[in-house]
Amino acid sequence: MQPDESEHGKPPVLDVDRPDRRLAQPFSGWTHEQMTESIDNFIQESELDDYAHYIRRGAFLAQSKAAFPVGRERRDGLELKDSERNFLDLENSPRRIDQFKQPWRLYALVGCCSLGAAVQGWDETAVNGAQIYYTDALGLRGKDGLLGLVNSAPYLCCAFSCWLNYPLNKLLNRRGVIFLTCLISSVTCLGQAFPYTWQQLFVARFLLGLGIGPKSATIPIYAAECAPSNIRGALVMMWQMWTAFGIMCGYIAGVVLAGVRDGQDPNICNATPLNNLLTARCSLNWRLMLASPMILPLVVVAYVFTLPESPRWLLMKARKGNKKKYEEAFLSLCKLRHTKLQAGRDLFLIDHLLQGEQEIMKLQKPFSELFTLGRNRRALTASVITMFLQQFCGVNVTAYYSSTILKEHANYSNQSALLFSMGFGIINFLFAIPAIWTIDSFGRRNLLLATFPFMAFFQIVMVIAFALPSNSPAQPVLVILGMYLFGVAYSPGEGPVPFVYSAESMPLYNRDFGMGIVTSVNWFWNFFISITWPKFNTAFTTSGAFGWYAAWCFIGWWMILLFVPETKDLTLEQLDQVFSYGTREHMRHGMAQLRWCIAKYLLRRKGLKKPVFLSKEDPEEVFDTRGENFDSRGGGYEHVREEKIEGSPGGATSSGVFVG
């Protein structure tokens, strides 16, 4: 398959007969006879004769939502019950609130996944307050390199352990991986409470990465594979939102546990003699802080196997010869959908798409094509940029080191430093909530472009604050103001966008490979930020180090403008069109957008036409999901344009069901 390149600004020519194109347009142009034959073959192969009535009707719904028009009898005699039609109307309601009316079992699954995300956030910030105390207790005062190594140990492991995601999922299934990684997280968090040397703490925290890495890749996939497409965008975003909730919990634990025993009494717990700091009387507080995240993963471990397994994973096993998995997949979907009709529809569609993926895997080399195929390379580049900038905007400097920074460089007491750090965690969580709506309405790219200038500005506020004399009364106020407002700007933009953007921009057939790469990139730079901050802080001064990250916020804005296209409200085939344009076209469009904004908002010119990269009204760029030869035995419509569903990263089609 040759790269799709545009020439002289012309739209790239896309081959609708390509296997990956057929994944984006399932059943396009199929006649009634073709559909019937395919349905019969599937029922025979799956041995689901007892559910054939649901699968047969659901398959026609997978081809078109208009397959059962109201008041018109189909020539094949198939029809819908009133209760089934009511739930389909609810599923396709234009009112966004109706899309969230889902079975309770789906929300139980989302709740368990949210706890798993919170585990990660809590793991990350437990060290924030604890290091105020264990820096002296473990003899790390003045040893910036070793302190950074201990703090960054989990993320060093994550940069490699996330590659275990594929073999572990293949072996243990989605729930099994979540169970194992949460159990590892709980045990290693408990292990962090017992070290008496920095080497022991490093080992415990490094092993913690085995619990964080595969879990961070598996939970979003599990939630996305179980959720219907009309709310998948919001559910995929929940990963980052509840990670922010866990980050907040880590800060709160630091405040609550700081005063345990005599941990904060300077008259008892001081650096001389050193052994005094390692007694339960003085070190119990930071040991409990590091152990506190062990509670949430135990809840996930207890409940994850009460949830349905991923239907997609079950069908993958069924297609490899274990035919009992077909019925398990159908029953799993029955628990996650309102009706058996919807379960039958999704079962047939997912199986069809898995067959298409297998054909592609035989014909192509998905991993190498991430780098050689122009469309995939540009999607990978844009995803890596968003992941890289999530770390290099400097947010995790605050997440991991805010308490130490406030204590040592802004003259706050231990308790005040912990309290103000907790305030940042609360802001980080609360201001992520609006992104549930804005990420699908305002757009991913627009959120990034709108928030990065503010992130740069508020980092500069902290640069100025730390440049002031230490006895200046304005310094503490400016530090907190800059820190909090930076959190306000970060949370609805660069916080949730990278994972959503990466998941939807990759083509269906190599999304696992692509997500493995970008997740590894994210964790590697997370490790880099964590290990280098103590040295940066010493070599650059605190003011200069924050200036470094402010500069990256400025550079990042230009990277997004030129290399990160918008993906909001675009179907798979439209995403293929967007990323198949050459990089020069994207850069040209970004500069056109910049000129338009300057002319409209700064120069106040009127009557300017906003530059649009991909016109949804262009008939060459909007595909007919059923084709001219569609034979509707219900006497239905000859042409129905594809209905694009907001918030459906990775492939909502006109059927409105999961395709990824």
TrEMBL record:
It is a multi-pass membrane protein. Gene3D superfamilies: MFS general substrate transporter like domains. GO terms for biological process: myo-inositol transport; polyol transmembrane transport. The keyword Flavoprotein does not apply. The keyword NADP does not apply. It comes from the Eukaryota. Keywords: Membrane, Transmembrane, Transmembrane helix, Transport. PROSITE patterns: MFS, SUGAR_TRANSPORT_1. One of its GO terms (cellular component) is membrane. Residues 109-568 form the Major facilitator superfamily (MFS) profile domain. It is found in: Membrane. The chain crosses the membrane at residues 176-196, 202-223, 235-258, 294-315, 379-397, 417-439, 446-468, 474-492, 513-533, 545-564. GO terms for molecular function: transmembrane transporter activity. Residues 1-20 are annotated as: Disordered. Belongs to the major facilitator superfamily. Sugar transporter (TC 2.A.1.1) family. This is Major facilitator superfamily (MFS) profile domain-containing protein. It comes from Melanomma pulvis-pyrius CBS 109.77. The lineage of its organism: Eukaryota, Fungi, Dikarya, Ascomycota, Pezizomycotina.
